[in-house]
Design goal:
Blueprint: E1 4-6, E2 33-35, H1 48-121, H2 126-130, E3 144-146, E4 149-154, H3 165-174, E5 178-179, H4 185-194, E6 204-212, E7 217-220, E8 242-246, E9 255-258, E10 265-271, H5 272-311, H6 317-321, E11 335-337, E12 340-342, H7 356-370
Parallel strand pairs: 6-10
Antiparallel strand pairs: 1-2, 3-4, 4-10, 5-10, 6-7, 6-8, 8-9, 11-12
Amino acid sequence: MTEELNYVMVTFTSNSVSTQEKPYDLDVIYEEVKTEEKACDTHPVIPEKVKKAPSCNLLHLIAVGLGVFCVILLSFVIALSIRLNTVKSEQETQRTSFEKQKEELIRERDRHNWTMETIMGHETFLVKHYCPEKVCKPCLEDWVLFQSSCYLFVDGQYYSNWKTWQGSREDCRKKNADLVVIESLEEQEFISKHTKYYHDGNHGYWIGLSYNVQMDTWMWVDNRNLTLMYWNKQNAGRTAHCALSLSHWDPLGNWQKTGCDMRIRWIFRVIIHEQEAALNKVTAENQQLITSRSILQTQRDNLNWTLGFILNFDTFPVKHYCPEKVCKPCLDDWVLFQSSCYLFVDGEYSSNWKNWQGSREDCRKKKRRSGGD
């Protein structure tokens, strides 16, 4: 397309200058104007559709972007919903498990509380004797403390409750004690003060003193020789093998020789440090029992695991006895008659047959597995 160049001459005049002046006396200004063939204006006209095209493209891009964002957001919401449902299911399962554990712990706590109540209410439990008010004392209830020993004066009111010298000592040993051994005048006076009078003056309390025939001397139950003597002078020449302490007699002379088969009352004595040793022994035994119980619990758990494994094992005889979990008296292919099970070995080929000894050995193999013959 060719363009035309038009030149326009513009003349500026003033009032004082005549219009007849020559053209070369004036300034001449040229303006270059490019025009199309069909247009004379210096600025072309732009169509409306061309102006709106960029705006439409931008809106399309925004719409596509929003659509993609919505798809991504929807996918995220779906994934989050699935995850929340999974977590919720896991939480429900865990909550159910915790509730079962809680119930088991409650049952175990109740068992322990019952056991503790039973122990605390048991009449022979040592804590009740040592600590009736939950305050530990050096001696058991009804025992009397003197210096470093505890004493129990058995004051049975009836003859049927009394014992011989040997029977009294055996009763003492059951309580981790022994018949009293008198080591000083103070202890002798203490014992005389706490004995009770019986209407027969010849009755008293057994003490831990007896005559040793082999050694030909009087000895205490702890194998010590007799050094202090408080014999009753009226009974000095009497021959007997056991000694008792008379009630309400002069402490300097209230021991009396008598027959060991006589039934009277008696006096316990236990040294406090011996009690501590016995307590330590009981504590050690309790610790051993706790350890043994723990070992037994471990063995029980192992056996339970083994039993569960065996019950699921394909070759375990239970599967043969109980293919449908219904126990039968005989294995599969065996026939029950009265109280016995029979298996008829019907091998079709002679290669499977056996002689008498071989047949019996085969029976014994099955006996080891199932108890048959």
